[in-house]
Each structure stands twice: as structure tokens, then as C-alpha cells.
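seq/struct pair 1
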Amino acid sequence: MDEANFLSNVAIFSHLDVSDLESLGSKLRRRTFQKGEVLFHQDDPGDRLHFVAEGLVKISIASPDGRENYIALLMAGDCVGEMSVMDGGLRSATAIAMEPTETMTLSREDFLAFLNDHTQVAVQIITLLVRRLRAMDQLVGDMVFLDVPTRVAKKLLELMGTYADSRDEAGNFAVPLGQEELSRLVGSSRERVSRALTTYRRMGLLITAHRKISITDVDGLQRMANI
């Protein structure tokens, strides 16, 4: 992999010329993770930034009693762990590979040094942080104001974008997640999410199989999500 070209496809660096990224690219270190392996844990030191090269990473937070919710799914081209790298604090969430994943890592010191010489990247970082803050505001708002079936429909439509290339044998959009994972993304119990999926299946909006939800009626699901 050409590290400078790789960085040019990461959103926060996309406005820079490849030549501007050569020195930074030389400082990247490749990491590989198997499905289920942890990139970093909540409360770990924020000592490095991960850029996803291949695979899929879930970001989760845990309560003191052990309950877990997923707050984001990140894929190739996304950066992971930028908040603690920026402020020097501890990791606010846990990052876990959902499939075999490869990341390119950059130490906090190298990233901050580059940021000091390329202040325009700071604007991109602020934009990224604001976008993720908006997403969290939306997540909180959905949990307060929307019922579980509506949240399930809305989340499945969002996941269609994440898994845009995933299709089943009939050509339907296929979300390769189990009900437990979907319930954690929605912020509800597995039982309530299962009931919502059963209702949508009876309405002909989707088909469920082992760790796969195929969407057969996008327009109908949009109506259920009030979109």
C-alpha cells in the first residue's frame, strides 16, 4: 500500500496533495485485527489514531453494570479515536473489529506535529467532530422521541448505506447483522427489536435469516421510519 495515497483518501487529508502527505505516510504503522478483536478499550490512553484501511469497526460504550450499546460503525477511509488523540484524555469508547480489519495507525505525537504544520487539517478535524456530535444528538433524540419499531426501521435504512455493496441472492439490500447487534445499535432490548422485525417481516418489508436482514421494500420501511 502506498501510504501517502492511502492518506489522501481519508476525509481529513483529502484536500492535501499527495506530496504533502509523504512524510506523514512514512510514520504510519499497519495493524491487523481478527473479527471480535479490540482496537482499544474504553478508558485506555489515547496514544494513537487509527485509519481504517479494510474491514468494519464498531464503537461501543459500556455502563458500570456491563450493559453495552453501539454508537457508530466505521469503515474504510474513516478515522478512529480522534477525540482522545486531540485532547490527550482517555478513550471514551471501545473499538472492536466486526470482521477481519486492517488499520494504519499514527502516534498522537506525530499527528499533532503534522497538525501544527498543516493547520487547515484542524478545520477538517473540527468538521469531523461536529458531524459525530450531531450524530450523537440525533441518536439521543431518537431514543427519547421514537418508539422501538420506528428506530429499527430508521437504523436499517442507515445501515443500507454502510453495507451498500451487500446484497442477498435476490438482489435485495442485505444487512449482515444479528438481532443482538441491531438491538445495541438501536438502544433497546433484543426482545423488542425481535418483535419489530417480526412485524416488518409480516408486512413484507424484510426477510430475516441467520445474521442477515434483507430489505425487500425500501419505500415501505421509509414510511415506517417516518422519512
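seq/struct pair 2
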Amino acid sequence: MDKASLRPLVLDVLRKTPQTHLHAIETEIRRHAEDYERHDVLFVQEILWELLVQGVLAPGKNSLNLNLPFVHVTEFGAHCLGDGTALVHDPDGYIANLKSVCGIAADAILIGTVHEALLAYLAGRYPSSAVMLGHGIGHLLDRLVVAAIRHGRQTGHGVQRLEQARSNPQRLVPILRRALSARRLPPTLAEDVDGTLLALNNVRSSFASTDGRYRLPQLDRETAFAYLLLFPGQCRFVYDLIAYLEGKPSD
């Protein structure tokens, strides 16, 4: 088996047994995975060490067993595992979910930048994660601007400011919000436009100042985690908005 197939199995074992032993986790997987082979234990160990580095796991099981190979799910890890958000710690699963949520609209540029953002997050490089996710968001917003410009030309709305905003990332979202508010969007889209665009813009503004100069983001694990956790739903909303503006049914 490969790591992509094993990682969900490891996470499932940890959900069921949050205080355990490294060898017990491997034994449980071997018992239930038909394709598991003896040498796959090395992949299991790699996954567990990654979860330790990421703070999902910590050494120790109880007061009598405080060191490795005993482990326990941390408070942060319990939050991740309990509500399904552990997908952030499963890059292949996260990308598969993103493709499922967004359908064929999710192109190679978006998928590639988000995947790099995930890898940076898992390596503990939280500022780098935000920068890569921000590049993906920039690509997504540019597609939305293009759709809004085409829609404006067809419906007689002014598009000059939108065209100028494509080359000015700092003015893009405010101008885009005003332009979309002038369109007769369905209520299900209209009520979430401002919140979604502002949330996406927050990621980009974490590494670009108001004058357009780039800076190193000051970002902690929880904030980077939240950015990645919220992105698939935000992405789906933007693609639904693009589909409406282009007169196409969403997937």
C-alpha cells in the first residue's frame, strides 16, 4: 500500500483509540487492510511521525507511559479528528475532496498551488502555506473577474474598473464586490458574496500590504489551518458564482 491509502486508515484508528501505542496502530491497520504488506509498516511509521511533528499527536499515553512508543491525540488533534477536518493533514484526501466539491471547474493551477500550500503547512511552514494558498486564490479571483467582465458586457454594466482591477490586486476585491452588488444575483449567492470575498482577501492580505508591497506573513498554525479548512467551501461558492455569470449550470 502507499502512504495516500494508509493515511486515512491511521487517522481512523486514532479516532477510535486516541491513547495508544505505535505498534498497536500498525497491528490494527494490518488486521483490517486486505492489501497491507509487512514492509508497509515503514509508511505507517512515517505518517505517525508526521502527525507528531504537526501536533496532532504527542508522546505518552498516561502518567505511567509518558514516552514513545506510546502516543496520545492532542487537544488540537482531537479537534481535527473529531469533526472530519483531519483532511488538512491528508493532502491526497484534501485534494480529492476539493476536486469533488468543485467539479471540473478546478483547474491544474488551482490544484497545484493548493497542494503546495498543504505540503508547506504539513512541514510547519505556515507563512509559506498562506503565500501558496494566496496564489491559488489570486487565480480563482481572476477567473471570477473575467466572468464578471463578460457578464457586464452582455448586460450593459460598466466594466472599465473591473478591467483595471485585474492588474491591481489591492483594489481587486473592493471593486469586484461593488460590481457584483450591482448585478441581480440569486439570493443564495448575493447573501454570501461579501463574506466570501473578504475571507479570501484576508489570506492574500496576510502577505501583501495595502501599498502592494510583499511582506513575510506572521502566521500561526491555527490560522493557517483555518485558511485551508475553509477554502474548499469558499472555492465552490466562487465557482457557482462564475457559473451563474457565464450562464452555465453548476456541477
